[in-house]
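Sequence in, structure out.
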Amino acid sequence: MSKKRQIKYVYISLITIALGLISRKISFIPSITGDILYAMMVYWIFRSLLINKKLQLSLLLSISFCFFIEFLQLVQTQPFLYIRNHAFLKLIFGQGFLWTDLVAYTIGSFSAYQIDKILITKNNTSQ
C-alpha cells in the first residue's frame, strides 16, 4: 500500500511542476502562484521519500528547505551567481531574496499538508 501512495506523491509532484511552469507563462497569473506551487512540490517530494513518517515532518522539512533556498539567495559568491544565470537552476534556486516568497512558501507548504491530510491520507489512521 505505501508503494502505491509513494507513486501517487510522485505523480502529484510532476503535476505540480507542470502547473508551476505553466503559471510562469501566463501573464495574468500572479507570480506568487509559482512560489506557492514550488513549496507544494517540495512537500510532495518529501512525502514520497518519507512515506511512512508523519505528515508534520514533511511539512517542517518543506518549509525549512524552501526558507533555506530563499535565504541562500542572499549569498552573492561566484558559484551562486552562475546558478542564478542558468535557466534550469534558476527555477530551483531562484534569483533574489524576497520576504514575500517566504509567505508564499508557508502558504504552499501548509496547503499541500492540508490537501494531504484531508484528501490523500484521510483513511490512513497512522498519520
